[in-house]
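INTERNAL AUDIT FORM
Audit reference: QA-55
Scope: verify that the stored structure record matches its stored sequence.
Auditor: D.O.
Record contents follow.
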Amino acid sequence: MKTPKAESSPDLHSSLVQNLGLAIAEGTLTPHSILRLDELETQYSVSRSVVREATRVLSSKGMLESRRRLGTVVQPEESWNAYDPQVIRWRLASSKRLEQLRALNELRGAVEPQAARLAAERASWDTGSDLVSQAARLWAAGQRGNQDEFLRLDIEFHAAVLRASGNVMFSQLHNLVTEVLTGRTEHGLMPHLPHHEALQLHADVANAIQRGEASAAHAAMKRIVEQSTEEMGDIWAGHRDGAPGAAPGTHRGDPSSPSATVG
Protein backbone atom coordinates (compact mmCIF):
# COMPACT_ATOMS: atom_id res chain seq x y z
CA MET A 1 0.00 0.00 0.00
CA LYS A 2 1.43 3.36 -1.04
CA THR A 3 2.05 6.07 1.55
CA PRO A 4 -0.52 8.87 1.04
CA LYS A 5 1.03 12.01 -0.36
CA ALA A 6 0.14 15.45 0.90
CA GLU A 7 -1.92 17.56 -1.48
CA SER A 8 -0.07 19.91 -3.80
CA SER A 9 -0.04 23.49 -2.48
CA PRO A 10 2.04 26.68 -2.79
CA ASP A 11 3.34 26.12 0.75
CA LEU A 12 4.52 22.59 0.03
CA HIS A 13 6.13 23.74 -3.20
CA SER A 14 7.92 26.67 -1.55
CA SER A 15 9.07 24.47 1.32
CA LEU A 16 10.52 21.86 -1.03
CA VAL A 17 12.30 24.49 -3.14
CA GLN A 18 13.76 25.96 0.04
CA ASN A 19 14.90 22.60 1.44
CA LEU A 20 16.50 21.44 -1.80
CA GLY A 21 18.07 24.83 -2.53
CA LEU A 22 19.68 24.93 0.90
CA ALA A 23 20.91 21.35 0.58
CA ILE A 24 22.52 22.08 -2.78
CA ALA A 25 24.08 25.34 -1.57
CA GLU A 26 25.50 23.61 1.51
CA GLY A 27 26.80 20.67 -0.51
CA THR A 28 24.65 18.09 1.28
CA LEU A 29 23.36 17.28 -2.18
CA THR A 30 26.69 16.97 -3.94
CA PRO A 31 27.42 18.12 -7.51
CA HIS A 32 26.64 15.52 -10.18
CA SER A 33 24.52 13.44 -7.79
CA ILE A 34 21.19 12.25 -9.20
CA LEU A 35 17.85 13.08 -7.57
CA ARG A 36 15.11 10.48 -7.92
CA LEU A 37 11.68 12.07 -8.05
CA ASP A 38 9.98 9.11 -6.38
CA GLU A 39 12.47 9.27 -3.51
CA LEU A 40 11.79 12.99 -3.05
CA GLU A 41 8.05 12.27 -2.99
CA THR A 42 8.54 9.78 -0.18
CA GLN A 43 11.12 11.76 1.75
CA TYR A 44 9.09 14.99 1.82
CA SER A 45 5.59 13.45 1.65
CA VAL A 46 4.57 15.51 -1.34
CA SER A 47 2.94 14.77 -4.67
CA ARG A 48 4.79 14.24 -7.94
CA SER A 49 3.48 17.57 -9.24
CA VAL A 50 5.05 19.40 -6.27
CA VAL A 51 8.38 17.65 -6.87
CA ARG A 52 8.33 18.44 -10.58
CA GLU A 53 7.52 22.11 -10.01
CA ALA A 54 10.24 22.43 -7.36
CA THR A 55 12.88 20.84 -9.58
CA ARG A 56 11.76 23.06 -12.47
CA VAL A 57 12.32 26.17 -10.33
CA LEU A 58 15.78 24.98 -9.25
CA SER A 59 16.66 24.09 -12.84
CA SER A 60 15.81 27.67 -13.87
CA LYS A 61 18.41 28.82 -11.34
CA GLY A 62 21.04 26.48 -12.78
CA MET A 63 21.15 24.29 -9.67
CA LEU A 64 19.58 21.22 -11.27
CA GLU A 65 19.50 19.81 -14.79
CA SER A 66 17.19 17.18 -16.22
CA ARG A 67 18.97 14.65 -18.42
CA ARG A 68 17.30 12.02 -20.56
CA ARG A 69 17.76 8.45 -19.28
CA LEU A 70 19.69 9.73 -16.30
CA GLY A 71 17.35 11.86 -14.22
CA THR A 72 17.67 15.17 -12.40
CA VAL A 73 21.32 15.99 -11.79
CA VAL A 74 22.68 18.42 -9.18
CA GLN A 75 24.84 21.04 -10.89
CA PRO A 76 28.21 22.40 -9.70
CA GLU A 77 28.35 25.91 -8.27
CA GLU A 78 29.74 27.48 -11.44
CA SER A 79 26.47 26.60 -13.20
CA TRP A 80 24.24 28.42 -10.70
CA ASN A 81 22.76 31.85 -11.39
CA ALA A 82 24.95 33.74 -8.94
CA TYR A 83 22.78 36.87 -9.25
CA ASP A 84 19.55 35.12 -8.28
CA PRO A 85 18.36 36.51 -4.90
CA GLN A 86 17.30 33.06 -3.65
CA VAL A 87 20.64 31.51 -4.60
CA ILE A 88 22.40 34.32 -2.74
CA ARG A 89 20.15 33.76 0.29
CA TRP A 90 20.86 30.04 0.32
CA ARG A 91 24.60 30.61 0.11
CA LEU A 92 24.37 33.10 2.96
CA ALA A 93 22.56 30.45 5.03
CA SER A 94 25.28 27.88 4.33
CA SER A 95 28.82 27.36 5.59
CA LYS A 96 29.92 29.37 2.53
CA ARG A 97 28.41 32.52 4.05
CA LEU A 98 31.65 34.48 4.31
CA GLU A 99 32.64 33.66 0.73
CA GLN A 100 29.27 34.93 -0.48
CA LEU A 101 29.46 38.13 1.55
CA ARG A 102 32.99 38.78 0.34
CA ALA A 103 31.97 38.26 -3.30
CA LEU A 104 29.00 40.60 -2.87
CA ASN A 105 31.18 43.25 -1.24
CA GLU A 106 33.67 43.03 -4.11
CA LEU A 107 30.81 43.51 -6.58
CA ARG A 108 29.53 46.47 -4.60
CA GLY A 109 33.02 47.98 -4.65
CA ALA A 110 33.06 47.80 -8.44
CA VAL A 111 29.57 49.26 -8.91
CA GLU A 112 28.34 51.51 -6.11
CA PRO A 113 31.12 54.14 -6.10
CA GLN A 114 30.70 54.58 -9.86
CA ALA A 115 26.92 54.75 -9.42
CA ALA A 116 27.41 57.54 -6.87
CA ARG A 117 29.70 59.38 -9.29
CA LEU A 118 27.15 59.13 -12.10
CA ALA A 119 24.34 60.20 -9.76
CA ALA A 120 26.28 63.36 -8.91
CA GLU A 121 26.68 64.06 -12.62
CA ARG A 122 23.15 63.21 -13.73
CA ALA A 123 20.64 63.44 -10.87
CA SER A 124 18.35 66.43 -10.52
CA TRP A 125 18.47 68.75 -7.51
CA ASP A 126 15.19 67.24 -6.26
CA THR A 127 16.62 63.72 -6.47
CA GLY A 128 19.68 64.86 -4.57
CA SER A 129 17.47 66.51 -1.95
CA ASP A 130 15.53 63.28 -1.53
CA LEU A 131 18.80 61.44 -0.92
CA VAL A 132 19.82 64.00 1.69
CA SER A 133 16.48 63.47 3.44
CA GLN A 134 16.94 59.69 3.27
CA ALA A 135 20.42 59.99 4.78
CA ALA A 136 19.00 62.10 7.62
CA ARG A 137 16.32 59.50 8.38
CA LEU A 138 19.00 56.80 8.24
CA TRP A 139 21.12 58.74 10.72
CA ALA A 140 18.15 59.16 13.07
CA ALA A 141 17.29 55.46 12.95
CA GLY A 142 20.92 54.58 13.66
CA GLN A 143 21.04 56.93 16.63
CA ARG A 144 17.85 55.39 18.03
CA GLY A 145 19.28 51.88 17.69
CA ASN A 146 16.26 50.70 15.70
CA GLN A 147 17.98 47.99 13.68
CA ASP A 148 14.93 46.94 11.64
CA GLU A 149 14.17 50.50 10.60
CA PHE A 150 17.83 51.19 9.95
CA LEU A 151 18.12 48.15 7.67
CA ARG A 152 15.02 49.19 5.70
CA LEU A 153 16.29 52.75 5.26
CA ASP A 154 19.82 51.59 4.41
CA ILE A 155 18.45 49.34 1.66
CA GLU A 156 16.29 52.19 0.34
CA PHE A 157 19.24 54.61 0.36
CA HIS A 158 21.57 52.35 -1.62
CA ALA A 159 18.80 51.45 -4.08
CA ALA A 160 18.07 55.16 -4.57
CA VAL A 161 21.72 55.91 -5.36
CA LEU A 162 21.77 53.11 -7.94
CA ARG A 163 18.60 54.51 -9.55
CA ALA A 164 19.95 58.07 -9.46
CA SER A 165 22.95 56.94 -11.53
CA GLY A 166 20.67 56.89 -14.56
CA ASN A 167 22.17 53.55 -15.55
CA VAL A 168 19.45 50.90 -15.76
CA MET A 169 22.03 48.11 -15.43
CA PHE A 170 23.24 49.53 -12.13
CA SER A 171 19.67 50.06 -10.94
CA GLN A 172 18.85 46.39 -11.52
CA LEU A 173 21.58 45.41 -9.06
CA HIS A 174 19.65 46.78 -6.09
CA ASN A 175 18.46 43.26 -5.22
CA LEU A 176 22.05 42.14 -4.74
CA VAL A 177 22.76 45.04 -2.40
CA THR A 178 19.55 44.23 -0.54
CA GLU A 179 20.69 40.63 -0.02
CA VAL A 180 24.12 41.55 1.34
CA LEU A 181 22.73 44.16 3.74
CA THR A 182 19.95 41.83 4.88
CA GLY A 183 22.27 38.84 5.13
CA ARG A 184 24.77 40.72 7.29
CA THR A 185 21.97 41.66 9.69
CA GLU A 186 20.26 38.27 9.80
CA HIS A 187 23.53 36.47 10.48
CA GLY A 188 24.74 38.76 13.25
CA LEU A 189 27.40 40.62 11.26
CA MET A 190 25.90 44.07 11.79
CA PRO A 191 26.37 46.23 14.88
CA HIS A 192 23.33 47.09 16.96
CA LEU A 193 24.40 50.74 16.94
CA PRO A 194 26.00 51.92 13.66
CA HIS A 195 29.43 53.53 13.78
CA HIS A 196 29.32 57.33 13.58
CA GLU A 197 31.71 57.41 10.61
CA ALA A 198 29.44 55.12 8.60
CA LEU A 199 26.45 57.37 9.22
CA GLN A 200 28.50 60.42 8.26
CA LEU A 201 29.67 58.77 5.04
CA HIS A 202 26.08 58.12 3.94
CA ALA A 203 25.34 61.80 4.54
CA ASP A 204 28.50 62.72 2.61
CA VAL A 205 27.37 60.65 -0.38
CA ALA A 206 23.96 62.30 -0.42
CA ASN A 207 25.33 65.83 -0.02
CA ALA A 208 27.93 65.32 -2.75
CA ILE A 209 25.28 64.01 -5.16
CA GLN A 210 23.02 66.97 -4.40
CA ARG A 211 25.89 69.41 -5.03
CA GLY A 212 27.00 67.61 -8.19
CA GLU A 213 30.44 66.76 -6.74
CA ALA A 214 31.17 63.52 -8.56
CA SER A 215 34.62 62.78 -7.10
CA ALA A 216 33.42 63.38 -3.54
CA ALA A 217 30.39 61.13 -4.05
CA HIS A 218 32.61 58.39 -5.48
CA ALA A 219 35.12 58.67 -2.61
CA ALA A 220 32.49 58.56 0.14
CA MET A 221 30.70 55.54 -1.33
CA LYS A 222 34.02 53.81 -1.94
CA ARG A 223 34.84 54.26 1.75
CA ILE A 224 31.45 52.83 2.81
CA VAL A 225 32.13 49.64 0.87
CA GLU A 226 35.76 49.51 2.04
CA GLN A 227 34.66 49.63 5.67
CA SER A 228 32.32 46.73 5.09
CA THR A 229 35.07 44.78 3.31
CA GLU A 230 37.57 45.46 6.09
CA GLU A 231 35.17 44.15 8.70
CA MET A 232 34.54 41.04 6.61
CA GLY A 233 38.31 40.57 6.37
CA ASP A 234 38.58 40.60 10.16
CA ILE A 235 35.80 38.03 10.48
CA TRP A 236 37.29 35.87 7.74
CA ALA A 237 40.74 35.98 9.38
CA GLY A 238 39.22 34.95 12.70
CA HIS A 239 37.50 31.97 11.12
CA ARG A 240 40.62 30.97 9.20
CA ASP A 241 42.77 31.18 12.32
CA GLY A 242 40.26 29.23 14.35
CA ALA A 243 39.66 32.05 16.81
CA PRO A 244 37.04 31.23 19.46
CA GLY A 245 33.57 32.29 18.42
CA ALA A 246 34.68 33.11 14.89
CA ALA A 247 32.75 30.41 13.08
CA PRO A 248 31.08 31.38 9.80
CA GLY A 249 28.23 33.77 10.33
CA THR A 250 29.35 35.02 13.74
CA HIS A 251 31.15 38.15 14.82
CA ARG A 252 34.10 37.78 17.14
CA GLY A 253 33.29 40.99 18.97
CA ASP A 254 30.19 42.37 20.62
CA PRO A 255 27.67 43.09 17.82
CA SER A 256 27.03 46.48 19.41
CA SER A 257 30.71 47.36 19.40
CA PRO A 258 31.25 50.91 18.07
CA SER A 259 34.22 49.63 16.08
CA ALA A 260 31.90 47.69 13.81
CA THR A 261 30.73 49.36 10.62
CA VAL A 262 27.67 49.28 8.41
CA GLY A 263 27.15 49.35 4.69
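Auditor finding: record pair retrieved intact. The CA atoms of residues 62 and 83 lie 11 Å apart.
Action required: none
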